[in-house]
Amino acid sequence: MATYSCRTAKAMRRPFDSLFGRLALLVVGVLLLAHFAWFALIRLQRSEWQARYAVEETMFLIEAVRQHVERTPEQPLPSRVKVVPDTPGVASPADPPVPPPVEHFLSELEDRLPPGTQIRAKGGNKPSSLWVLEPGFKRWIVVPLQPLRSPRRPLDRTLMWLGLIFTGAVLSALFAAWQLQRPLRTLAQAVARFGRGLPVAPVRERGPLELRQLTRGFNTMVSNLAQTDKDRNVMLAGVAHDLRTPLARLRLRAEMLDDVKARDGVVRDVDSMTHIVDQFLVFAHDGTDRSEPVGVDQQCDRIARTYRAVSPSAHAVCTDLRAGPDFVLPAATLERVLSNLLDNAHAYGAPPVVIETVRTARGFTLTVSDQGGGISPQDLLNASRPFVRLDPARGGNGHSGLGLAIVERLTNRLGGECRLGNHECGGLRVELAFPAQSGTAQA
Fold first, then answer.
1. In this structure, are 212 and 92 located in the same domain?
2. Above 80 in pLDDT, residue 302?
3. What DSSP state is assigned to residue 379?
4. 111 and 186 fall within a common domain
5. Which of 48, 79, 202, 443 is a good FRET partner for 177, with 20 to 30 A between their CA atoms?
6. pLDDT, tens digit, for every residue of 364-396?
7. Domain shared by 251 and 335, yes or no
């Protein structure tokens, strides 16, 4: 559980480690590449389109002048065009070389005109007129040569529209990606709550087919496990209640024995069985702790003093309480947690047993540690599982393997986390981390 919280915090600090972050990065990258390629293609083809348009315009003008001369020669031509008789030297080909765009334009125009047509561009390095002599037509047709405009700067209207389209596409794609990952995010939050032992409501099935199937499977699994847990708790509670009356009668009869040694042995065994029955009832309890919230520091100090007074032969219990008055928990839950941890330290640890509380940036921690042999690393994962005894020889001393399981369950119901580990100097260290608002949680 602590590992999961650490991973969640790291994911919060690394936004592109989430599904939405990676989808957003992929969408923006693909759209940016597509728009850049499209813009580059437009820029490369613009000169070609301008040349074709100029050729079409010039072809139309030449044809209009020729038909005008053939059909209505008596009417004057517009001032921008004229017709010059083909006399020697009137259109000399010895003009300077023209720029590459004009040369390309003349080549395209020559391909469109009838074979054998002569074309001259007049005006030096910046031609201003075009002379055309078609076969069978004894006059030069002179038309203005439209300057071929070079492509505009990159920051032109095309780029502006491209930016607007790109922005709209990115926003739409990000909205779609957000809607796509929302069901998965909800399911991940439900899995996190379920992994911490908190109650989980059925997750609504939505999204693609595979995600709906995954959600349906998760809901079914949670429902089956909840029913199994409920059946087990009912069984444990029933067995515990059925055993209480016979144990009370057995203790009463033991008190009547004349043999003191036998009487003490039977009473001790009955007390051990009663302790196991009580643990069954606590573990099977699945209701709400309605006891008043109390200050953890004050309650820990009181329980430690009571523990020392009631069990003088027990290990020394020390306290280091620094959480402050804001750290509150339900009284009954806190007492159950501390009694189980102190009993566990008394049975398997070594003095001194230390109860510590401290305030952290995310809430509060309550720690109980001892100086015993601790738990081997390979057994730490199983130590808080129900009915697990790490030492098989402990089966006859009133322990059922529920102590740490009860502590973890009660802690989870308050929205906290139970972390098991070993002290640097040896001994078991049980750290309970609670959020800032844990006193009103259910347990």
1. no
2. yes
3. G
4. yes
5. 202
6. 999 999 888 888 877 777 676 665 655 544 444
7. no
Mean pLDDT over 313-340 rounds to 86
C-beta atoms surrounding 161 within 10 Å: 10
Same domain, residue pair 274 and 310: no
Which pLDDT value is given to residue 153?
53
- Tokens 């607007």 belong to which residue? 164
* Amino acid making up residue 328: V
Q: Does residue 424 share a domain with residue 347?
A: yes
Please determine, for residue 22, whether its predicted confidence score (pLDDT) is greater than 90: no
Average pLDDT estimate for 328-353: 86
H or E, element range at 432: strand 428-435
Residues of the domain holding 143? 1-195
Buried b (16+ CB within 10 A) or exposed e, 401-437: bbbbbbbbbbbbbbbbbbbbebeeeebbbbbbbbeee
Cα–Cα distances in angstroms (integers) from residue 12 to residues 2, 7, 304, 363, in the given order: 15, 9, 40, 18
Residue 60: both structure tokens together? 């139309």
Whether the per-residue pLDDT at 106 is higher than 60: the answer is yes
62 part of a folded domain: yes
List, for residues 40-92, the tens digit of each pLDDT value. Answer: 777 777 767 777 888 888 888 888 888 888 888 788 888 788 888 877 776 66
In a domain, 109, yes or no: yes
Considering the domain architecture, whether residues 22 and 165 belong to the same structural domain is answered as yes
* Helix (H), strand (E) at residue 7: helix 2-13
Helix (H) or strand (E) holding 298: helix 296-310
CA neighbor of 145 nearest in space, from 62, 222, 34:
62
Check residue 432 and give its pLDDT. Answer: 94
Peptide bond connecting 100 to the previous residue in cis, omega within 30 degrees of 0:
no
pLDDT per residue over 107-160, tens digit each? 888 888 888 888 888 766 666 788 888 888 888 888 887 655 554 554 567 777
Decide: residue 167, CB within 10 A, 0-12 exposed, 13-18 middle, 19+ buried. Answer: exposed
Check which CATH number belongs to the domain holding 298 and give it.
3.30.565.10
Q: For residue 278, give the CATH number of its domain.
A: 1.10.287
> Quick one: 189 and 206 in the same domain?
no
State the distance between the two ends of the chain, measured CA to CA, in whole angstroms: 18
For residue 8, pLDDT over 50 is answered with: no
Q: How far is Cα 258 from Cα 261, in angstroms, rounded to an integer?
A: 9
Joined tokens for residue 123: 């005006």
The 3-state secondary structure of 98-154, one letter per residue? CCHHHHHHHHHHHHHCCCCCEEEEECCCCCCEEEEECCCCCEEEEEECCCCCCCCCC
Q: Are residues 164 and 306 in the same domain?
A: no
**Given 163, 195, 227, which residue is the final one in a domain?**
195
The pair of three-digit structure tokens given for residue 216, joined into one six-digit string: 């349906």
Tell me if 443 is assigned to some domain: no
